[in-house]
Hints:
Elements: H1 2-24, H2 26-42, E1 46-53, E2 59-67, E3 79-88, E4 97-106, E5 109-115, E6 118-119, H3 120-132, H4 136-142, E7 148-157, E8 160-165, E9 172-176, E10 180-185, H5 194-214, H6 218-238, H7 243-255, H8 260-263
Parallel strand pairs: 4-7, 5-8
Antiparallel strand pairs: 1-2, 2-3, 3-4, 3-5, 5-6, 7-10, 8-9
Helix pairs in contact: 3-5, 6-7
Amino acid sequence: MKRIIGIGGGLLVVVVIAVFFLYSSLDGIITAAVEKFGSEITQTKVTLKETKISATDGKGALRGFRMTNPSGFKTESSVEFDEVSMVLDIKTVTEDTIVIKDIIISGPRITYEHSSDGSNIDAIKNNVDSYLGAGSSKKKTSEGGGKKLIIEKLSILNGKANVSAAILQGKSMSVDLPDIVLKDIGKSKGGATPGEVASKVMDSLQKNINGAVKHLNLDQIKEVVGSVVSGAKDMLEKGTAGTQDLVESSKGLVEDNPVGDAVKGLFGN
């Protein structure tokens, strides 16, 4: 009997030490997981400066998130934010399905780079879809042996997109993004893989950003800029304009166009 009690007591000590080690290392585990899975799933470089999660109530924050762009794009990053607040169901961290009660991403800074082949945001979404389309065995190994997530509420609030495109001649335009609130991600099927969560979030973010940027009428802006450049070139070739005439002509073409307000800054207004 004493031997059984001794073995039981020893096992209890081992369990306590293991649990203590897990909770004391939780911040590092989350940071490493975000960087590893985020980079693999989006095919970009994802970095996270630090994670701070309370081992008692599961409340905490992720700070200094940055995602670069896929290859082929010139801007340095696609998504950045200073801090994300979250509430983790601390009892579930040792289970197969981890429950996150609430995530709030406030004030994310999105860089929307437009090119003839599409935007960087579209490219990232395609990368996520491609990852999910890979072999199931590869995904299971990559995503931590089948570890899953349930996110009861995820909010992306007060976002802003800086639009970069060749037609803007090195300048950028800014547009506010509507808030996004997603509920019960993965709940209906007992948990979602990190890839499935990323796909759900990127799908909403892609629609949100594309809808907001659509109102900038980038195609019309391209036509306006082309008209201004073409008109200025004709005036120079004919020798009918000085510098001031070109400036005034450019302003007139921009102001007479329905998207003039969006491009005035490109011509000194």
